[in-house]
What does this fold into?
Amino acid sequence: MDFDAIAIGGGHAGIEAGLALARLGFKTLFITQNLDCIAKLSCNPAIGGLAKGNVVREIDALGGQMARLIDSTMIQFRILNRSKGPAVQAPRAQADKAAYALLAKQTLEQQKNLSLFQDTVVDLICDGKMKKIKGVVTERGNRITAGVVVLTTGTFMEARIFIGDYMTSSGRLGEPAAVGLGESLRKIGFEVGRLKTGTPARVLKSSLDFSRLEEQKGDEIQLPFSFSNHRIERPHVPCYITYTTEATHKIIRDNIKYSPLYGGKIVGIGPRYCPSIEDKVMRFPDRGRHQIFVEPEGLNTEEMYLNGISSSLPEQVQERFLRTVPGLERVVIMKPGYAVEYDYINPTQLYPNLESKLLQGLFIAGQTNGTSGYEEAAAQGLLAGINAALKLQKKKPLILSRAESYIGVLIDDLVTLGTKEPYRLFTSRAEYRLCLRHDTADMRLFSKGYAIGLQNNEANERFEAKVEKLNAINELLHKRKVDTHDISAEPLLSKYKGKTFARILKDPAFTMSVLKKLDGALNDFSAALSTQIELDIKYAGYLKRQQEQVARFKRLEKLIIPSEFNYDSAKGLSKESREKLKTIRPLSVGQASRISGVRNSDIAVLLVYLTKKSGA
Amino acid sequence: MFARGLCREKSIKIAKFKSAVIAYESFFLYLLIMVKESAFDLHDPIVALATPWGESAIAVIRTSGEDCIKKIAGVFKGTDNLSNKKSHTVNYGTLYNPKDGELVDEVLAAVYHSPHSYTGEDAVELFCHGSPAALQKTLKLLYEQGFRQADAGEFTLRAFLNGKIDLTKAEAVNEIIRAKSDKARRLALHRLAGSIEKTINSFKTRLVDMLSALEVMIDYPDEQYEHNEFPPQEFKKLLAEVHALLATYKAGRIYQEGVGVALAGRTNSGKSTLFNLMLKEDRSIVSDVHGTTRDFIEGSIAIKGIPVRLYDTAGLRSTDHPVEAEGIRRTDKIITNADIIIYLIDGSLGVCGEDEKFINQYKSGGRLLVVWNKCDLSGKKVPKAFIPISSLTGQGLQNMEKAIVFLLLGSSPLESDGPVIDSLRQKQSLEQALAALKRVETGYKNRVSYDLLAVDIKEALDAFGHITGQVTSEEILRAMFSKFCVGK
It folds into this structure.
């Protein structure tokens, strides 16, 4: 065997998969079409956001790379949703795209056990029975063998780009598609579908009239995504806001027939949550204007990204409608917006460890599974890498639960429900989001990363010291009582005389900052730590209710369905459900209950058979 | 196994086969409801009356589930602690209310240890006295100990799930068919058919809309919203509707379980005559001698479809006679427990001090109805608040019955076409939903953050979901993207 493992694809999923495998000691090949296009941020120049920011921190807690990459390359940082509640706050950073990609490549190059190689994979090598993967075949005819393969093709598999009438075989503007692999997968028996996504134009900074744009600054304090970083000192670059006008909408409506989507050229399904400007205008004709965020692509480039206005209309039309937007009257387009249509593999063909059901040893991650977003891709890449390594180690897979991580929600949704549109994480997809705050990602997942071997002893000591500190703050708040001294300093506290500081925090009127003024000992702890405890105490009532829901949820998750379970022998199942259960092969009754179309009566029947089997 | 059971004999007659198919389908319909409503918790202690509701020598109350023996042992006084009794033993003792030590009933308790019971769980069967009033008390006592009312056929379901019976066993199927048709009969009776589901689904849809408004603001923090307010007026309306639906539970139960109506009044006010009239038979001895009825007599009737236990009580007067005194003591007890008290005034004599005393004592309870009897005899003017009747001629009886129904149901929700809930499960789920919605209301007033408001909205949705099926996150997303133009 040439390698222990092969990671195909140089995007965010491939990076995490390759690094995880190599870091766990496996001789790994990182193969991609163009080594100068590693870790490109193909669309918006930002990492994080709602749910996604949480995912980045979860990746970090498990020992992945994304948080460290953005920490070193951010050019603006914000905590979103400060006013909408602690559970739904999330960090987001604008990235310097070139710096991000460069750092990623350097990290890969310096990684022990990891070999970088430029070639395009066009076929898979299987064993005689087509049950197990053996390696890959490349465009230049290289045959490379390995025990496990992680496939992360992103939007490149059989991809086509559309701009008005223009259409070409390409996965990103200017980069050729990966042709051949999609066909091979179809031959092996994979169900392959088409999805569509789009990106807006990049425009010349000096062509913009900034006096007509509204400036949007980041937070003053930049906070690290990675739990291993304590402070960030990076440049602060603002973004800008402007709006479309009725004139913009008229041009779009008048030219809608030239849209490849409306003209019927694109068959793939696009995301509802991230519609093109054509979709926005056509579907919501009453809206007088749509917001546009003008974001920098980096420190050393003139390119600016027009967030919110992705389009695949002809270039001339794009220019015309952009010039109706205040501040963009003389805009110069550097790269036009475009739509891309690509092959994806229906992810219900994977087990929850992201291994394919058809080919043992083949793991699939990222946009190939129908997701969109750098963070979603990286998370899957990391889990696929970890699980591929665990398979080589003959260990039990790492499957994260919906109650402990957004990554768990993401992967469970994918493998249980599949997807028909590009899948994006939302906080509302998580049933227990109060338990999934971004600041608690390490509390939830660090020990798993450490147990696997992606976190070293030094990180573990740091983590344990943090837990100790958190306990100390918690204890202090529960022991320290309001005395006359405190009341003379803060008269509003008189009604809490003799009560603990923890009790005060439950009152929405008081925050930790008040208590810090009263007791210097609280200042010994960092703001991040004291805020974490503050939130835990403030929302204890809600958290407790949510934890009770989690306990109920876990009851069904714990009911394991044996992998050899014969659904054909379970006679009470409806025909439709039986087929679905046979396809998905859920690991637990909990997972089975989430399959769409599987009725509760079928779950009841399943329960009967499973409890009978266990001899109850 | 099911199919084999159904087609065991080729010669199976078509009619038989059809009924088996219906049973089969209804069983799964039933499983579906059970699994949904119970959130898969099929071990908690349940209780149900196993014998028909009504007057009988003995009634059997069946219980099953986790800690079921321990829970009953806590309210059972016998020769020994019930928890220490062996399986398959019958134990004599009394049930008492631990709160006030009051005796509830004398019973025999049959104890079964898991897995050697009908359901396969720990189980206790209580053989009680078959009086609806006493049964109601016993059931209430058990609810207070943490038992919940079993759904129709739930004992059989548990037996099935625990592998105690095969689906093809005729008893099981029979029971379910009966449960289904009983339900169907009740549904028809109460004009419920399907309307609960429609109502709950409308609650859900409206709540999903409100939730999606919050969710879109949470998940798209940078967007500007035209309608970015949570709609407090609509929410208030929803809250009121949930409240109203919940209130129908009382009516549902009244029609299902019936009520106790006590006839009270001074001696010789004509209670027994009225009792016989309402019962349409001569049960109570009627005479002109004061204090003829010394113990209470009861009978079952229906008033406008409501099952009524009617009690004729001993006339109230101070007496030295020990038997009559005991009768009056029992009368007091009946009156205390009655849902409705009909107090008779002897119209030929008018209101006396004793009457006033009684009326004043009970008038604020919302269950007292004062009737002016013998209105045919007296020429006296009937005071406005009293209903004139003649227990001799039947005059005014209809008015009195209307008044009883009004007192029980108010402006009777069952008169309207709206849905009525009659299962404890539905009531509990609605209460859960209502509690969650009230937290949303207070939370909104106190400017609680969106993520926390959403927790309670989702809890309310889950509670509604226990009645008619869970809302998935996909439905919320769909509502988000169909109503809001977001995304960049």
In short: Chain B touches chain A through 52 residues (CB under 8 Å). The mean pLDDT of chain B is 77.
